[in-house]
Amino acid sequence: MASNTMRKVSLRNLAAHKLRLVLTVLSVVLGTAFVAGSMIFTSTVSTAFDGIFNNVALGVDTQVTPKESNSSGVPDSVLDQLEDNKTELGIAKIMPSYSGPATIAKADGKALQTGGAPSVGSAFQPPDQRLSDTESRLVAGRAPAAPNEVALNDSAADEADLKLGSTTKVATTRGSGGPMEVTIVGLLNVPGDTSGFTNVQFTESTAKDLFTDGSHSQAIDLQAVPGVSPEELKTRVGALIGDGYELRTGDQVRQDEKDNINQFLDVFNYILLAFAAIGLIVGTFIIYNTFSMIVAQRVRELALLRAIGASRKQVTRSVLLEAFVVGLIGALIGLAAGIGIAALLRALTSSTGLPTASLQIGASAVIACLVVGIGVTMISAYAPARRASKVSPVEAMRESATDGQASLKVRTIIGIVLAVIAVALLAIGAAGEGPGAASTVGGGALVMIFAVVFAAPALSRPFVGGIGTVLARPFGKIGQLARTNAVRNPRRTAATAFALTLGLMLVAVIGTLGSSFKGTIDDAIDTGLTANLIIAGSQGSGFSPSVSESVSGIEGVESVVSFGAVQAQVDGDNVWGYSPVGDMETVTPYEMVEGPPTVEPDGMVVGERTSKEKGWNVGDTVEMTSFDGTVVPVTVTGIFKDNPLVDPWAIGSDAYQKLIPEPLRTDVFAAVKTVPGANINEISDRVEDATADYLTVKVQTPAEFKGEQSSQIDQMLSVLYAMLGLALVIAVLGIVNTLALSVIERKREIGMLRAIGMARAQVRRTIYIESLLIAIFGAVLGVLLGVAFGWALVRTLRYWGLGDPVFPWGLIVITLVGAAIVGVLAALWPASRAAKTKPLEAIAE
């Protein structure tokens, strides 16, 4: 009976304070919406990709591929073995695969942009040779029969404004071949075709010439005769060709493709969930603050309940019941908002080439949303609920609630101890380099956050009091009153400000990282490059080595140095570097520590950091193993001071050709040096004309290259800032919530001030200044922490070539000014409510 009564009291209390209910629910909604949205969106995209990969390797019972994806492929000798033993093995059909990256020009001569979807070239397979009837099929025209004839998937043809009989160009990013002029003789319907996907199909012999070295294939697909299972065929083929290859059934191929994309989606999901966690952490402090104030305002009510027989457990349960209802409502609304977020993300990504499907609202998303929303709210409300249960009946006789001014001594000492530990960890981490040092900095940052949680109340008094003295002075007695209100309950002030502290701390960390990355790039270009033009592939891709050859003969070009990408294995570890074609010294002034700067054909020069890390010293022979298993001994002839453009090492042309098969050779970038006194703009135009047919090549000045790199970093940062906006929105909501409840708590006080002559405008101004002081406290604390963490983190990233920390002073100033504006805006509504307080009613209450 008593339990039912307490339940009714809790529910009626919620119903009687709808505004307070709405404000608290919003704190839950904003965090849970991201949890639900991220899970629903990734599940939706995963389902869409599953639909595509269900069409992969159809009709394939066994697929033979090399164990290393960067190898030349499966030798033709294996194909001959399989052909010679078809009957014994139980093979019905054999289909070798010849494919690779390829870009086609639109009708206007410019490259067809895929928006991130694949753009590949492959071999056309006649219907009688296909393993499945559902593979790409002609819907118009005929099969390509000559080297300059291609078939193109119809969706790409529509996008490129091409049709049967159109003449255009195709460029590949690998190998030494230049752009091809081709005629479209067929249009294809490709299963699983997505927006932006491009498939150019050549004759089998042309595809083999373009994408292999002439004696390999990327894979061999096998179809078994009736009565032979895929597993049985896989076993038989493995016994024949040996252990040097990877054999998978068609089901395994499809599942591996799904697993690969799901790994990417998991990373994306973790990023979204990380921001949801930030929102929930910030929301936790707001909910805790809200329930603390609610309990403080209801001391007399709770004491009366105790006086008429309610037990401590019943009081605790009544507060937790309110928290449960708030969490449940917030979670349900958050789920609805999450569905909206997922729909918006789906709409945004569908235009970039990602496949789409109907929204997948699974049970896991619903359960996670409910568990997180209700759990966070009840955990946040538990401490206030415990305090509520300790209210003694005699409190009902007191005039006012306890002010919460308990001693801060213990928690301040804990905060100081944690801060000392955090500073030590940050210093140790900043003094080192690499993953271990970065982890130490991360640990120090986490400890420092806890230190702030404990010590912020004690810190708020001198800080808010100090800035309050300065900022409130022009407002006279009104300013003094606002300053007093801001410091009268330091626990509440600190909890309210912490939400803003956490959000702006992350903004400052990300801003420092971004500025440091841009500064490193700028320094590398300004001090490490003497070339006048840079040639690079679009969207971070490489380009054919023949590009540099076509540029070298242009009038006004003194020299061209191209940098080929090198991947190999040393002692079982994957390593990567460059192979320059041309004299590197003419385009980048790298300084030698030991040995001559010249890169010998079978030698290598190594960066100072790499030399220490790998133990590669002058005179040592490093045995590099290609992904085909070829061992190439390379002699270290010199060590240079770390240079971002040349790091980590560069090998000679002979070693490069032995390690990298011709079809896999790709240039990362090329540096062009012009003759002294030449007009850079004119030469740039000539280089652009000479490379236009390669479609994916960009020609830029160093300043343009720096601008593009900075723009890409800014784009990534803008996405992060937008997502961090969630934490800032919650922080603003927390200030609004705290001030609104504070106005209710101080209703009699405000009424008394109004009764003795305070004008409504003065009441509003008092709340504005109070909110401003709290916001500035939170912002300054957040910026200081963020800059410190960012500085330490950048120092650890020297391991990967990042330069000295660069602080985003402009962002810091904008952040602090923005925080002040946010403080005033957050106070508009609570201040308006306070100003409407009727003196007589407030005093009578």
Automatic annotation (TrEMBL):
Q: Which InterPro entries match?
A: ABC3_permease_C (IPR003838), MacB_PCD (IPR025857), Macrolide_Exporter_MacB (IPR050250)
- Chief localization class? membrane
Q: What does the record say about its membrane topology?
A: Multi-pass membrane protein
A GO term, aspect molecular function? transmembrane transporter activity
| Localization of this protein | Cell membrane
Family statement drawn from the similarity comment of this UniProt entry: Belongs to the ABC-4 integral membrane protein family.
Membrane-spanning residues: 21-41, 267-288, 319-345, 357-383, 413-432, 444-472, 493-513, 719-744, 767-794, 806-829
Q: Where is the ABC3 transporter permease C-terminal domain?
A: 274-393, 722-839
State if tRNA processing is listed as a keyword.
no
Please identify the protein, giving its name as recorded. Putative ABC transport system permease protein
Which Pfam family, just one, is annotated for this protein?
MacB_PCD
> Is Lipid metabolism one of the keywords?
no
Q: Which UniProt keywords apply?
A: Cell membrane, Membrane, Transmembrane, Transmembrane helix
Q: Which GO terms describe its cellular component?
A: plasma membrane
Q: Which organism is it from?
A: Williamsia limnetica
Every copy of the MacB-like periplasmic core domain together lies at 22-239, 493-689
Instruction: For the region Disordered, give the residue spans.
Output: 111-132
